[in-house]
Amino acid sequence: MKKKQLLGALLAASVLLGGLSACGGKISTTGNASAPAGSTASGASAGEAASSGKGELNLYIWTEYVPDSVIQDFQKQTGIKVNVSTFSTNEDMLAKVKSESAGAFDIVQPSDYMVEQMIKQGMLQKLDRSKLTNLKNVSEAFLNQSYDPGNQYSVPYLGGVAAIAVNTSKIKDSITGYADLFNPKYKKTIVALDDYRAVIGMAARSLGLSMNETDGAKIAQIRAQTLKLKDNVKLYDSDSPKSALISGDATLGFCWSAEIALAMKENPAIKIVFPKEGAYVFFDNWCITKGAKNASNANTFINYMMEAQTAKAVSDEFPYLQPNKAAVGLLGDDYKNNPAENVPEDVINKGEHVKNLDTATLAKYNEIWTELKK
Amino acid sequence: MKSEKRRRRAGAVYCGFIYLLLFLPIAVVVVNSFNATESKPYLSWKGFTFDWYGRLLQNAGLLDAFRNTLVLAAVSTILSTVIGTVAAVGMFKYRFRGKSVIDALLYIPVVIPEIVLGIALLTLFATVNIPRGMLSLVLAHVTFCIPFVIFNVRARLDGYDRSIEEASMDLGAGRLRTFFHITLPVLAPGIGGGALLAFTLSIDDVIVSYFTNGQTKTFPLKVMESIKSGVSPDVNALSTLILLVTVLLVVLTQSGLIRRLRHKP
Amino acid sequence: MSKRRFRSSTAPVLTMVGPVSLWLVFFVAVPLLYVFVMSFCSIDENYNVVFRFTLANYRGLLDVDYLQIYVQSILIAFFATALCLLLGYPFAFLISRTFKSRKTILYMMVIIPFWTNSLIRIYGWRTFLGASGWLNQALMALRLTDSPVELLFNRGATILGMAYVLFPFMVLPLYTAIEKLDQSQLEASADLGGRRGATFFNVILPQTVSGVFSGCIMVFIPSLGYFYVADILGGGNSDVIGNLIERQFQSGNNWPLGAALSIILIAVTLLLVKLYQKCGGDIQSLGV
After folding, report:
1. CA C30, C35, C40, C43 torsion: positive or negative?
2. Which of A161, A247, B231, C221 has the most Cβ atoms closer than 10 angstroms to its Cβ?
3. CA angle A299, B229, A177 (to 5 degrees)
4. What is the dotted CATH code of the domain comprising B64-235?
5. For B222, nearest residue in chain C (alpha carbons)
6. Is ipTM strictly over 0.90?
7. How many angstroms separate the CA atoms of A75 and A297, rounded?
8. Which one has a higher pLDDT value, A182 or A3?
């Protein structure tokens, strides 16, 4: 008897709460004409056009990378319903896209080496240059890169480095490079990226080796070095490492440059250090997947993201290295003179990009990672 | 007698301590829903406000995810309860070839770690190309709910007197009628228990949904996504509301029960 | 025994048991079989699964590092289970016996947290125990400590997190078993002069042992796979087998390896269940 009543109670609860969420559905349609309150499974099938007739768009983007306001504005302006999913590393993104049917995601955001990998695997389609009128806003220095000559498959979004964060109120020593992170006195102080290419690459750089080593003997050296990190890393976080820096859970960090910049804003005692060995450099791009069901909307979106105002809004929230010169013009000195945000050219040139490696070598890297995290 | 009282008090303190631990994180969630903080990671207390409850209604993504979860749980519960109840009765009444195989297969989703079920289903869906989304979620959730329904109904069937059914059939009622009018009412508590368990498991499922959801967000997965960037208090607000409704309904049904018991002669 | 019923039992069997049989075959047996097959496959340069037979994925059985992860994972699960049992048994006993007048409401109060999303509760613990968390802020405000106490992002935090999330799975079977205790036996034991300790070990424990085993299995096995607890509270520093498997389907891009690890995990699980049955555990009582 008791259980049956509880069942009834729970079903009643779900009706109540369903009513609440239905209300929410009605209120939230700011310019989003397509979401009727009773609809289920948003974004379940990318092919279903929303009732506004303008269609949908399925984004697959990095966490903490594209401001909600920017996406909401796009929805308002165009009436296209945008469904957002997020990933934490390039490899996660590749795995998910491969496990879904082709075209399940319209837009993806691979980094430099991942663009090359995805082109090689035939996972991307060429962009519609006729729709990308705002491409002129992007500074030439960031175009025509080796991973996608002529920008047929990608346009740059943001870039930066994986640098070191130091909470100078807790750490009084002078930190100059990646090698310092391996010092045993920093036990349980570091927040590191949860990204095996980044961390292992960082260990390689600290030894003066390349992030893309294939030689067995050198990999063994890198392995020994990486494992020294085990005692020093307190937690791994690729999504929002600034949280650990701000809360004081970590006093040293190996984080994305903008995350450090944001942490610095919250706590001026936190400083950024560009490693003297040369940093992990990355550049992220917009790409459209092959078989994307909303390719036209995707091109529209990418063009929208390259507008000066949009790019400025992005930089306001996630201050990475901004390739959009029109936006940089709008950003002013706060951005230009802040090396954590506007990463200096010499740091970029001294650094190294991740490159694709063969699966056998990557398997070795994965083993190092498994050992490190156990 | 005094030592009895002392023992009771010690016991009460102990239980109180356990309840404190159980509810502590919930208290944190509730309190933080009133936090006037604006900046990630939303941890430091910046003042009291009801703002986030209002902003919750504008968070389309979060509400969509919650709606998905409710729909998913409802559909999964109904499907698994129907299939499971019918199967439990069938397995109780009849002997047939392969019964032990079915029995063994039933225990697998219960006993193996959810992650194994999750990746196995993902593998199946990827190979057969079943679209990942609400469909794959329902299929996955029904899979782990059915065994619990069957076990609960079976427990109720233990000691079930078949002679009532035989009497019903002898009096001319067909098999179907007997099932609906005789068997089901007796089994009702077991079915209810199983359905409740199925609903609970589906609402809170993280791991299996993580692998089989495609792009469809369920509430637990949306929370997981929020945890990565810093949980904004509107997620706390929604959790608090859910908690309120649940507690309210439990209190109502419990007091309703007590009132009914009091009025019984 | 009516002849009519015996002759026509095929149709009812098919309609009643057919659906569940098909379901179990398609969504349990076939996927697991496919995982088994995939564990012997390899991946090509594009990370696609190819049907090239290899035993390399099972080298985890011989690799010292992988074995260490399994051992550590089992230890975490063991401690989580022990914690649940030690805290849960007296608790279930008190609710069922000592406070039996309020037992329904007390029982519901155990289930209610269960209905709140487990992720948000784990995150609540993170908010509470972090360096700027409530506990540390209180401790520092009370001047009990100068710098924050490190409570998170280690193996202990993972164990506590697992125990917390799985606590109801220990309490519920224990409660059910304790409810079934024969009061008259307890009274007889007391009448015969048995002290409380003796009564416990000789009468109560043996009768509730099925609940103990059931609870232990329902806590231990999931602990091996709950990767999100290890991620959120452990900080990615105390991986359990679940993390290892999850990684192969994500950044590792190596499904066959993930499949092999899963098969090994299933084997460990089945071993534990067999042990459970050998110790007299009733598999029928799981999940009720």
Report:
1. positive
2. A161
3. 95
4. 1.10.3720.10
5. C119
6. no
7. 11
8. A182
Question: Tokens representing B117?
Answer: 């079920």
User: C3 pLDDT exceeds 50?
Assistant: no
Band of pLDDT at residue A32, cut at 50, 70 and 90: very low
Q: How far apart are CA B21 and CA C34, in angstroms?
A: 42
DSSP bridge pairs for A352: A280
Q: Packing angle between helix C255-278 and helix C30-38, nearest 10 degrees?
A: 120
Judge whether residue B259 has pLDDT over 70.
no
Is a pLDDT exceeding 80 seen at residue B73?
yes
- DSSP assigned state of B35: B
> How many CA atoms lie within 13 Å of C221's alpha carbon, on the beta-carbon side?
30
First to last CA, chain A: 48
Query: Nearest-CA distance from B96 to chain A in Å?
Result: 32
Residue B127, by phi and psi: left (phi above 0), alpha (psi -120 to 50) or beta?
Answer: alpha
| Alpha-helical regions (H) of chain B | 2-32, 51-56, 60-93, 99-111, 114-128, 134-157, 163-170, 175-178, 184-203, 207-212, 219-229, 233-263
- Give pLDDT tens digits for C208-231: 888 888 889 889 999 999 999 999
**Phi/psi zone of residue C23: left (φ > 0), alpha (ψ -120 to 50 degrees), beta?**
alpha
> Both tokens of residue C29?
């047996």
Give the pair of three-digit tokens for residue C236. 């990615």
> Going by C-beta distance under 8 Å and a sequence separation of 6 or more, which residues neighbour residue B44?
B37, C132
What is d(CA C38, CA C36) in angstroms, rounded to the nearest whole number? 5
Query: Which pLDDT band holds residue B70 (cuts at 50, 70, 90)?
Result: very high
The chains found to touch C (3+ Cβ pairs under 8 angstroms) are A, B
- Output the six-digit token pair for C220: 């231990």
Task: Name A283's bridge partners.
Answer: A159
Domain layout of chain B by residue ranges: 64-235
- Packed helices C64-93 and C255-278: angle between N→C axes, nearest 10 degrees: 40
DSSP A252: E
Domains of chain C (ranges; CATH) run: 65-285 (1.10.3720.10)
Tokens of B260: 């009914």
By Cβ distance, the residue of B115, B243, B247 closest to C225 is B115
For residue C152 the two structure tokens come to: 């998170």
Residue type, A324: N
Give me the pLDDT at residue C2, please. 47
**Interface residue of C27, C152, C226, C285 to substitute, partner B, most B CBs within 10 Å:** C27
Three-state SS at A353: strand
pLDDT digits (tens, 9 = 90+) for C152-173: 898 999 999 999 999 999 998 8
Amino acid at C100: K
List the domains of chain A with CATH numbers.
Answer: 56-159+283-336 (3.40.190.10), 160-281+343-373 (3.40.190.10)
CA nearest to A40 within chain B: B68
Q: Which amino acid is at C124?
A: G
User: Over the stretch C70-116, which tens digit does the pLDDT of each residue have?
Assistant: 899 999 999 999 999 999 999 988 888 877 777 778 888 888 888 88
Structural contact between residues C245 and B137, judged by C-beta atoms closer than 8 angstroms: no
Q: Residue C272: count other Cβ atoms within 10 Å of its Cβ.
A: 18
Q: A193: which 2 tokens?
A: 């990226």
Q: From C105, which residue of chain A is nearest by alpha-carbon distance?
A: A2
B123 contact A CB<8A:
no
